[in-house]
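Reopening closed ticket. The problem is back. First fold of the pair:
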Amino acid sequence: MFMTIAEVLTREQNGVLHCDGAWIRAHRRQLATVVTIRGEIDALNADRIAGCIRRFILGEDRVVLDMSGVTGFAAPGISLLQTFDDDCRAEGVQWTLVASPAVTESLGDSGFSDEHSVPEALQDLADAIALRRRLALPLVRTS
């Protein structure tokens, strides 16, 4: 059963999902849904966190995964990100990672690029949308 972002957020206390040492909160912005994870991600909670953040892959809505407040990031966290990436690709959802130093250190050369902040990630999305519109405009004019 699929739920809307509003339903997921209101279902939990104050819109916060608690996951055994980490908490998750999502905010709908004009350009994307920002899913914020704070705390530690380890073998005990990685599967539960993966299930929680999967809820925010909706339609073609873009997602900014804000992990800037993650203080501990064990190896299961990398698997969590790989699964999230696979799920987003399967749904055609573009996503961006904002990583904390703990996450960046653990990821190394795993292929995940990250933004330095949520505002930078949202600005990059806005720039990409504007570029696509500029590229598409000549095609629309010639039709």
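Second fold of the pair, where the issue appears:
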Amino acid sequence: MFEIISQILRYIFIIIMYLFLLSIIRLIYLDIKSMDVKRTYTDRAYLKVVNRLDSLDFKMEEYYVLGTQTIIGRSNRCDITIKDKFVSKEHLAIREDEGSYFIEDLNSQNGTFLNGEEVYDIMELQDGDKIGVGFIQLLFVENRG
């Protein structure tokens, strides 16, 4: 009887060890995959989330590549969805025009902030600008070259 219990415990221990190793391999894979994704941002402008992602009540990516027109809001139809209750369904737009990027508030309820000042009109974005949307802070990174 003791030998059977010993064998069962031995197999359980081996299974736990394999599960532990698989979880470590998975974490390494996800880390390498995220490094690969970051390399794609070198040729386009993008937004980097400044907030700690683990402190948010909703899921967000670390980086968002900007297209020729990017709509940010709470709606799932937006290009960048922020499920913050202080973000309007269609909160703001960032548009590219002749190599420059411009930000425009889309009549949002709580406003859009650029470097701490509320956006009332279309404004040009500069590399390093901080965009405030609800509780989210986004850093505008423009890669020229």
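Update: turned out to be a display glitch only; the data is intact. Residues 1 and 112 are 71 Å apart (CA to CA). The chain has a mean pLDDT of 87. Please close again.
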